[in-house]
Design a protein that fits this description.
By secondary structure, this protein is α+β, with helices and mostly antiparallel strands. It is built from 18 helices and 22 strands. β4 and β5 form a beta hairpin. α14 runs antiparallel to α16. The protein is extended, with a radius of gyration of 35 Å. The N terminus is likely disordered.
């Protein structure tokens, strides 16, 4: 086949389309394979071209933007349209391929108004049957049934129509209907991730499912149904056992009202020596978001309450114990909490490895009142502990400052630099602070010799030195402040192996971006609010989605607005 690039113009209008776009192709596909697949239309095909794997990423193929795809040009519209509808969503080398018009109009390509999301598709229904069913309601831009690596679908898919009327008709005729034996279809408008994020948060109070723990050992499934059945019809229940053989259960009530009544009546309900815990069943991401929000809120309260009571102590000896530190500082007042972070030091003695727990060299002492903390700071700063009088490193003591506040101070310091990256202060030659020259002027930037051009001239020209005067010290340009890009360090992010550490890194970055965001500048968020918004975003399970929020300012703005709405701010 001809290997030249596609240069045939695509005519406008429904009757002028001749170019098809084929996606989801197998990795080892060849043009000969496509010729055989489209053999029924071989006399009508002008050219077939397989596009490289990383090119031609299209909006209609956004589920797998790097999938191998091809462009096929027909000689006339009718044959192209016939091939599009007859061969679409059929298997080629074990993969279901998708065939659609080559769309040039971005408004059509990225339009989501006619997009549908379909669930509960029976597993014995193939992709072609799925496509034909939804084709009855109007012409389809693209359709996709999500499949695993073996070509078996997962029970859900997507359909994108050219107009809203077709989408509305499909919803009214197929939603909540048993179209195929086995299950009722769920057909609804497709929602973007940020829309689903908001909808999921709003549904927390509309849950018909309950989570129960602290269940007595002698309780079985029938006992549980009888107990909860007093408050409404129980549609489903299951008892779970953890590693310690402790019982918990999931209960599904017929209505939300019944679930609310059961939760109110049975939470903290005593059965023998056990006290039931009953609450709405939540997704892991929702639990993490709520827990993270509570942690941030609790930390904010503690930091505010003991702001001037908590000391950060550096230069602690490695052998210093928390008992020794307590004995040294308790004479200044009652201590609320005390901690010395430690690590395991591994050394080799002879041929044996020896592990020893040693101090990280700093610690924290929190008093109940600021007077005690201030007195301890004044008397112990730049001193050595009495138990380590031989130490040559005096203690450095200051009030503890949360990481958030430290970052804010750092940002304020960075704002003292101008956009060009240099500090906003006059640049002067050191000799401007020395003795005057022959003209009675200091050797500064205003001296005529400083601006005299010459070979190898630089910003700092050295003026002639008068005999007997000290030789001026050569001056270097002040170090420039290098402003980091407004996105995370991807190389460092990819080097982190632990997912929780990755999420922690992204969390710090998101907190900083929200602090610098235009919405914060106009509304003036508190640290507590910024922490809650950050916690909500970190509640997302998909790390790639969180990374996209870090890199996409529009996505971040949408998340902030949604979080503010949930927080009623």
């Amino acid at each position: 086949m001809n290997q030249q690039q596609v240069v045939v113009p695509q005519k406008q209008g429904e009757t002028g389309r001749t170019v098809l776009f084929v996606s989801e192709l197998p990795e080892n596909i060849t043009e000969e394979d496509l010729q055989n697949f489209f053999s029924e239309y071989k006399d009508s095909i002008f050219m077939i071209q397989i596009n490289n794997k990383f090119g031609n990423s299209r909006g209609v193929d956004s589920f797998h933007p790097r999938a191998l795809n091809a462009t096929i040009i027909f000689k006339d519209h009718k044959k192209a349209d016939d091939a599009r509808k007859n061969l679409n969503m059929r298997k080629l080398r074990g993969k279901t391929i998708r065939i659609m018009w080559h769309e040039r109009d971005n408004n059509v390509r990225y339009n989501t108004q006619g997009n549908l999301f379909i669930k509960n598709i029976p597993l014995d229904i193939n992709a072609r049957q799925f496509y034909e069913k939804f084709l009855q309601f109007g012409d389809i831009i693209s359709a996709k049934l999500i499949e695993d690596e073996e070509g078996n679908h997962n029970g859900y898919g997507y359909v994108s129509y050219y107009n809203n009327e077709s989408a509305d008709s499909a919803i009214s005729n197929l939603n909540n209907k048993e179209i195929w034996p086995g299950a009722k279809l769920e057909v609804a408008r497709f929602q973007k991730k940020n829309e689903r994020f908001s909808a999921a948060a709003n549904k927390l109070s509309m849950n018909k499912n309950l989570y129960v723990k602290n269940i007595p050992d002698n309780f079985n499934d029938a006992d549980l149904k009888n107990l909860f059945g007093k408050h409404g019809n129980v549609t489903w229940s299951k008892i779970l056992l953890d590693a310690n053989q402790r019982k918990s259960a999931i209960i599904s009530m017929e209505t939300e009202d019944a679930a609310n009544k059961a939760r109110e009546a049975l939470n903290n309900h005593a059965i023998g020596e056990a006290t039931l815990y009953v609450d709405s069943l939540q997704k892991k991401s929702d639990r993490q978001r709520i827990l993270s929000s509570k942690i941030h809120e609790n930390n904010s309260i503690l930091n505010s309450q003991f702001k001037n009571c908590n000391l950060h102590i550096k230069n602690l000896p490695e052998k210093c114990t928390e008992k020794q530190l307590s004995e040294e500082f308790s004479k200044y007042g009652e201590i609320k909490s005390l901690k010395i972070p430690k690590y395991i030091l591994v050394t080799k003695v002879g041929n044996q490895l020896k592990e020893e727990i040693v101090s990280r060299g700093f610690g924290y002492v929190c008093f109940f009142n600021p007077e005690s903390a201030n007195k301890a700071k004044e008397e112990m700063n730049n001193q050595v502990l009495s138990s380590f009088s031989e130490s040559k490193r005096p203690l450095l003591i200051d009030f503890f400052m949360p990481k958030v506040e430290r970052k804010n101070i750092l940002l304020k310091c960075q704002q003292q630099f101008n956009p060009n990256g240099r500090q906003q202060m006059p640049l002067m030659n050191p000799m401007s602070f020395g003795a005057p020259n022959q003209m009675g002027m200091p050797f500064g930037m205003g001296h005529p010799m400083m601006n005299k051009p010459g070979k190898n001239a630089s910003i700092y020209q050295q003026a002639p030195v008068q005999r007997g005067m000290p030789k001026p010290i050569p001056t270097q340009m002040p170090p420039q402040f290098v402003k980091k890009e407004d996105e995370p360090d991807i190389a460092y992010y990819n080097s982190i192996e632990d997912d929780s550490a990755k999420k922690e890194y992204l969390g710090e970055f998101i907190f900083k971006k929200i602090s610098n965001h235009a919405l914060n500048q106009s509304k003036g968020f508190t640290i507590d609010v910024i922490g809650k918004i950050t916690g909500m975003i970190l509640g997302i399970d998909d790390l790639n989605e969180i990374l996209d929020i870090c890199r996409n300012n529009e996505n971040l703005t949408a998340r902030i607005v949604e979080a503010l709405s949930l927080l009623n701010i």
